[in-house]
Design a protein that fits this description.
Elements: E1 2-7, H1 19-26, E2 31-36, E3 49-50, E4 60-61, H2 63-70, H3 75-78, E5 80-90, H4 93-99, E6 104-108, H5 117-123, E7 126-129, H6 138-152, H7 160-164, E8 183-184, E9 187-188, H8 198-216, H9 228-239
Parallel strand pairs: 1-2, 1-6, 5-6, 5-7
Antiparallel strand pairs: 3-4, 8-9
Helix pairs in contact: 2-5, 4-6
Amino acid sequence: MNINILTIFPEMFSFLDYGLVGQSISSGNVRINCLDIRQKSINKHRQVDSKPYGGGEGMLMMAEPLANTLKEIPKNDRGLVINFSPQGSKLDQKKVQKLSNEKNLTFVCGRYEGIDQRFIDKYVDEEISLGDFILNGGEAAALCTIDAIIRVIPGTIGNNNSLKNDTFSNGLLKGHAYTRPEIFEDMTVPDVLLSGNHNEIKEWRAKNSLIQTYLRRPELLNNVKLTNKQKKLLEELLTKDIL
């Protein structure tokens, strides 16, 4: 995969040099192409923003530097051009998986009060939001999105079961997990996890995943097609008032 990034802070993307994501990039599994928008600024002061027409607070990123930066990328290497904006659709794991299948992606990292709408109308294919909150710029959103995408690209994670059992992989939360020591500040590990009975452990994890999803993110259940066994389990838990 080739990922292009348009930003005025290319140094922020050094974050991608670390961990499994960094290893995936170093191995050639993913190529990161960071372009500095200021290199296409309109004057010697490297200006890429200006006051909005009609007045108002703040500054806007101008269309020209953005367009000229984008044109540095050959059309065949651009792929989907994505801008991060509160107006965009919310990013979720399903979308991450879909984006991971693209050969090329281009992320636009806006700053200030936003971007001249004409650039968006002409060059942006899609807008994405990380959630109902405001960031200082698109770089943090791009980092999160790229990290999530690279994580699911084959060759990044050694054990594919980690991806299959991740939170949101099946629409549910993953549930509780434990490691050594067996006793931590008078708190113990559930007995079933120490039993060595793989079927019982698998059943406990499935049940715990369902419970935690119901307790913490019940709205997720509206978008999940539960199996008959899961439906029965949830009804049983509710009836017995275990939750």
